[in-house]
Design goal:
Elements: E1 3-14, E2 18-29, E3 33-37, H1 44-51, E4 59-64, E5 67-68, H2 74-83, E6 85-89, H3 100-109, H4 115-128, H5 144-156, E7 162-166, H6 174-191, E8 194-199, H7 202-205, E9 210-215, E10 218-220
Parallel strand pairs: 3-8, 3-9, 6-7, 7-8
Antiparallel strand pairs: 1-2, 1-4, 4-5, 9-10
Helix pairs in contact: 3-4, 3-5, 4-5, 5-6
Length: 221
Amino acid sequence: METIIETRHLNKAYNDQVTALADVNLAIGKGEFVALLGRSGSGKSTLLNILGGLDAPTSGEVRIDDKSVDFGDRKALIALRRESIGFVFQSFNLIPALTAQENVEYPLLFNYRDTAVRRERAADLLSLVGLADRAHHYPREMSGGEQQRVAIARALIGEPLIVLADEPTGNLDSKTRDEIFGLMRQVNQERETTFLIVTHERELGKRTDRVINLLDGSVVA
């Protein structure tokens, strides 16, 4: 299997006192659906932020699609996030003043895509996540599960190789959680998009291809 995400001796420390990550080595294959498990403070979100270019490691290397990430190159990091990586967050992070359609379209504004292209792609993705009839509703008019579906559509708008999801079901009831998890799995299988999902729920981990466990900033068996 072709490797799409790789870290080599990755470390992250704050103020030389707090170690968030310690010698993390991992490899994730193209099209895998992987859970990153660990208790609060284990380093899960820190690792996800580094993989997404939102934070920089203290030392070590990250490779995305067999290319080393240069954390000192701001333009390259922006390009990485625009072209290769989609993000899904626990708190949805939708823009309140924009409709579902506009929220999904929003990332393409920075890619200078034609308006008609943006609208068509956003409409297709809202249909994919089962929200074609909610395209012109605002976040305040949608349930938590619907907002997270919009967030998933937005993450996919740039046709990323990878989706990084940080506790995407943490604010949802169990029924909606299962629906959202199932939707991400569907996208993974139909589009061969690689998913790395941070969660503390071991039950969800059983529904992935495999689980990576973090404990005190280190990968454990």
